[in-house]
Amino acid sequence: PEGYYSLELATNHYSLVCGIEHPLVKVEKSYANGIPDDEIAKYSFIDVFLDRTLLGASTLRQWVAPAWSSFKRCLITSYFLPCVPMLEKSKLVSILPAYTAKLLEERYRIKTLRTQTKLLTNKPRLIWHEVTNSDPLRQWIRSMIKSNIAKGNPLP
Fold first, then answer.
1. What is the pLDDT of residues 43-74, one digit of tens each?
2. CA–CA separation, 19 vs 105, rounded Å?
3. Per-position b or e across 50-81, b if 16+ CB within 10 A of its CB
4. Does the pLDDT of residue 156 top 60, yes or no?
5. Alpha carbons 114 and 16: distance in angstroms, whole number
6. What is the DSSP string of the chain?
7. Sign of torsion, CA 59 104 31 73?
8. What is the mean pLDDT of the segment spanning 139-150?
């Protein structure tokens, strides 16, 4: 809106993940363009809860993969990290931020799957009002954030 400024911080991508011994890992090899929805629908999801008022969806899956909204759910949680060991040892699947999934693959026995359905992305932004636009400290903080983004350093 008028009187506000913003800075795009990143582009967040999301991935479908499962344990490395999950049946979908073998199925994925059969499809050059990724796993079709009918194969994914055979398995239950661990869903991450979202605040509906912010995004118009109650789970991360509904938000980034609306085509999968009707697929089965086993568990809904506000925190996905404690559920990662469940993915290792079950036939459950989940949606995680792609960068997080990549890091977790190094520590846990999980795998990111290629899917035919492209998951939505989001672009978080730093937003500030014109009242604070000239404040030297806040200008410096914004410049540090912008500089780190330009260098490709991920934000915490």
1. 999 999 987 666 566 899 999 999 999 999 99
2. 10
3. beeeeeebebbbbbbbeebeebeebeeeeebe
4. no
5. 7
6. -TTEEEEE---B-EEEEEETTSHHHHHHTT-TT-B-HHHHTTS-EEEEB--HHHHS-SBHHHHH-GGGTTS-EEEEES-SGGGHHHHHTSS-EEEEEHHHHHHHHHHSSEEEE-BSSPPP-B--EEEEEGGGTT-HHHHHHHHHHHHHHHTTPPP-
7. negative
8. 89
Q: Which of 70, 65, 78 is nearest to 17 (CA)?
A: 65
The pLDDT value recorded for residue 56 is 63
Task: Answer yes or no: are the C-beta atoms of 58 and 75 closer than 8 Å.
Answer: no
Question: Which has the closest alpha carbon to 13: 94, 113, 98?
Answer: 98
